[in-house]
């Protein structure tokens, strides 16, 4: 009789942002209902919990698996998380890495796959090990269809479909911290590299759903005047301009600019979110962006955990400074 194969699963939870609990429940729901064992593959899941030194104990309680690997990292440094997971993979690692939905999760999944020689798939609804690969069902064509895909090269790196965020799965009653680690010293000591900037050019249309560069103002702009200053800066950058629902409800901008469930769903190459906390209804409107940069005075706002880059500062001043820099 052939012995059952244990599928090694790493659920990746970045707890340095404010969305940790929601992401933990989504991961827990997927591990319970979305990962279907087949061909004798028995999942053995461990949560890789990334948190700051002073928040580790409280976030362990949110982990979606009993077994936890705790890693202390500074906030808003996805490169360090990627390096830590890649280092873990060289020591035995995992067959499958599962990341939450959203731009941050997609960035981590792509980074880990690139550094470990694995394969990556986003917006996954369910997954089944097939022995040689991982058969995944995922959304396609903006959620209108679903398709079947198979990943072959391990480790398999997948991000969850946004619908898993609605899960209400409770975490285990008890947890065991397998290891408490720190990222490689050479990664922590190196400041984030400057990215090459591609000038996207002025869009031919102001249509929010087709814009390649988008600036969205939230209530953190402070006033109608603040929103108008962000709109003017967006125009200088050649970007389309949108706002959140609270801005529209405050009559600081018209409803034709609204982004989110009650407005437009966008898919820009780059989205700058200025002064929006990151409510789920708003995130639905920007989650398909290729890169999200967020500015807010509260570095614990949900948007901080969803963005690829986060700046703690005054939204109006930062966006105006960016427009001046591009000029």
Short structural description:
With 327 residues, the protein is an alpha/beta fold.
Please tell me about this protein's structure.
Helix 3 (78-90) runs parallel beside helix 4 and helix 6 (224-237) packs parallel to helix 10 (315-326). This protein has 2 domains: 5-188, 3-Layer(aba) Sandwich (Rossmann fold), CATH 3.40.50; 213-326, Rossmann fold (3-Layer(aba) Sandwich). The radius of gyration is 20 Å and the shape is globular. The protein has helices at residues 20-34, 56-60, 78-90, 103-116, 185-188, 224-237, 245-249, 280-286, 302-306, 315-326; strands at 5-14, 41-51, 67-72, 96-99, 119-129, 134-140, 145-151, 156-160, 176-181, 213-217, 240-243, 270-274, 291-296, 309-312. The protein is α/β, with parallel strands linked by helices. It starts with a strand and ends with a helix. The model is unreliable at 188-205 (pLDDT under 50). The protein has a 9-stranded mixed beta sheet, with helices on both faces. Strands 11-10-12-13-14 form a 5-stranded parallel beta sheet. It is 29% helix and 28% strand.
What's the shape?
Answer: globular
**Whole-number average pLDDT?**
85
DSSP summary: helix tally: 10
Number of strands: 14
CATH topology of the largest domain: Rossmann fold
The CATH superfamily of the largest domain is: HUPs
Strand ordering within the main sheet? 7-6-5-8-4-1-2-3-9
The gyration radius over C-alpha positions equals 20 Å
CATH class of the largest domain: Alpha Beta
Largest sheet: 9 strands, mixed
């Amino acid at each position: 009789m052939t012995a059952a194969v244990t599928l090694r699963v790493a659920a990746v939870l970045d707890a340095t942002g404010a969305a940790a609990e929601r992401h933990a429940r989504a991961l827990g729901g997927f591990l319970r209902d979305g990962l279907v064992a087949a061909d004798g593959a028995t999942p053995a899941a461990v949560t890789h919990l990334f948190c700051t030194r002073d928040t580790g104990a409280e976030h362990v309680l949110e982990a979606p698996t009993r077994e936890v690997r705790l890693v202390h990292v500074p906030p808003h440094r996805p490169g360090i998380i990627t390096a830590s997971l890649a280092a873990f993979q060289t020591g035995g690692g995992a067959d499958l890495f599962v990341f939450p939905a959203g731009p941050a999760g997609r960035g981590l999944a792509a980074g880990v796959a690139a550094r470990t020689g694995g394969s990556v798939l986003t917006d996954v609804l369910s997954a089944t090990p097939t022995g040689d690969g991982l058969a995944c069902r995922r959304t396609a064509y903006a959620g209108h269809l679903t398709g079947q895909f198979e990943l072959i090269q391990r480790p398999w790196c997948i991000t969850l479909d946004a619908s898993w965020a609605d899960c209400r799965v409770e975490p285990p009653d008890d947890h065991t911290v397998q290891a408490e680690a720190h990222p490689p010293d050479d990664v922590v000591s190196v400041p984030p590299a400057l990215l090459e900037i591609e000038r996207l050019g002025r869009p031919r249309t102001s249509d929010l759903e087709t814009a390649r560069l988008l600036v969205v103002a939230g209530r953190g702009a402070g006033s109608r005047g603040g929103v108008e200053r962000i709109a003017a800066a967006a125009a200088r950058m050649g970007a389309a301009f949108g706002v959140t629902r609270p801005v529209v409800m405050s009559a600081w901008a018209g409803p034709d600019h609204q982004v989110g469930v009650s407005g437009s769903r966008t898919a820009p190459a780059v989205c700058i979110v200025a002064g929006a906390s990151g409510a789920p209804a708003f995130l639905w409107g920007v989650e398909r962006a290729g890169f999200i940069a967020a500015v807010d005075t509260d570095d614990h706002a949900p948007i901080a955990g969803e963005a690829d880059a986060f700046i703690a500062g005054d939204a109006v001043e930062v966006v105006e400074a960016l427009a001046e820099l591009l000029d």
